Amino acid sequence: RKITVDTPLYTAILSEQGGGLKSFVLKKYRTAKEKDAPAMEMITATNPAEFPMLFSLDNGAGTDLPFFQAEATSVRVEEGGKAELKMTAVQAEEGVRIERYLTFTSDTYLIDSRYVVSNIGTVPLQISPALVMTNGPFTSGAAGGGYLSGGAAGMFSGPAAYVNGKLEEIKVKKLADGPFMLQGAVRWAAHVDNYFMCALIPGKGNTGTFSAVGDNKVRTVLTGGILKMAPGETEEFRYEGFFGPKKLAYLKETGYDLAEAINFGWFDILAKPMLYLLNFFLFCCGQLRYRHHSGDLSGQGLLLADHPEGHEVHEEYAETATQGRKTSGEV
Fold first, then answer.
1. Are the beta carbons of 116 and 96 closer than 8 angstroms?
2. What is the rounded distance in angstroms from the CA atom of residue 154 to the CA atom of residue 294?
3. 179 versus 208: which is more confidently predicted?
4. How many CB atoms lie within 10 A of CB 177?
5. What topology in the membrane does the UniProt record assign (predicted)?
6. Distant-in-sequence, close-in-space partners of 143: CB < 8 Å, separation ≥ 6
7. CA triple 243-246-248, angle to 5 deg
8. Mean pLDDT to the nearest integer, 154-165
9. What does the alpha-carbon distance between residue 18 and residue 45 come to, in Å, rounded to a whole number?
10. Which residue from 291, 278, 286, 284 is spatially nearest to 328, judged by alpha carbons?
11. If one looks up domain 2-249 in CATH, what number appears?
12. Residue 170 near residue 160 (C-beta atoms within 8 A)
């Protein structure tokens, strides 16, 4: 079955086969500047084995997708509220029961996921919990040219991670030589575009391994090592998933060091305060109209503001500059 989740910010569809995200549509962002352009779809995979937020106990190998039976087929989150969805998978032959609790909140793109794994068999188990995400190019016309397309000149698009207090951006051509792997304190692992970001965030005690592999599609895996479970024993694992705009102020407010995904290189220490100031001016103006492209001052960030009366101001994308210009905007 398909499980639909509707919030003020997005509409998501979960698959019971594997429990991954089949669709995640942002209500306030479009794929192009035209007013009749479709809403932004963050998921492009069609194979349940490639849906983001797949949880496995085999180090992300994905050889066997558990069937997560949901307690409800639809979840609606009202403004200012939150809702929880429980999904349960029982693998009798392996002696494993997985209870999955997903929490959706009205004012954030974060999804809280909690997994309670129980050994219901009669023999000890050896497990290696992992959360998996597979990403490919956005549909044609998506902002910034889409994942792995290279986006605008000089703009990074592809897998990234914040590990050991350092931003790591992995160019896709590096993956042609084989998997890329990092070990240590993994704060988050993601795929980033000029304007959007899909990220997996491990829970507390986040020492683990981040690996990326692929070409046209990049598979990101967060692993936490090997655990042994005695019969009747229970273990709990927690993650967050973020699927939304790469807007600096919003990422800063969300936490988890997600704002580090916006990187200005040598000019970072100066550019970010300037960006905050620019967004402040945009917010304060009564009638705003900001035109920008993927090479704007934000580098890789969305510059959106809210009208003082509460009406959101939608951005319009200009054509990508071809002469190395860094800014193209008007208020």
1. no
2. 10
3. 179
4. 7
5. Multi-pass membrane protein
6. 29, 31, 32, 40, 193, 194, 195, 196, 294, 317
7. 135
8. 79
9. 13
10. 291
11. 2.70.98.90
12. yes
Instruction: Note the pLDDT of residue 266.
Output: 58
Where helices occur in the chain by DSSP H, the ranges are 172-175, 248-254, 268-284
In the numeric block, which tokens belong to residue 225? 């090592």
- Token pair, residue 236, equals 């709990």
Kindly report the number of other CB atoms within 10 A of residue 8's CB atom. Answer: 14
Chain centroid, CA 31 distance in Å: 17
**pLDDT tens, residue by residue, 247-280:** 887 888 888 989 888 876 555 566 666 666 776 6
C-beta of residue 74 within 8 angstroms of C-beta of residue 13? no
Domains of the chain, residue spans: 2-249
Q: How large is the average pLDDT for residues 136-156?
A: 47
Task: Report the predicted TM-score, pTM, of the whole model to 2 decimal places.
Answer: 0.76
Return the structure tokens found at 113. Answer: 């996921």
Average pLDDT over residues 225-233: 91
**98-109 residue pLDDT tens:** 999 999 999 999
Q: For the chain, what is the mean pLDDT?
A: 76
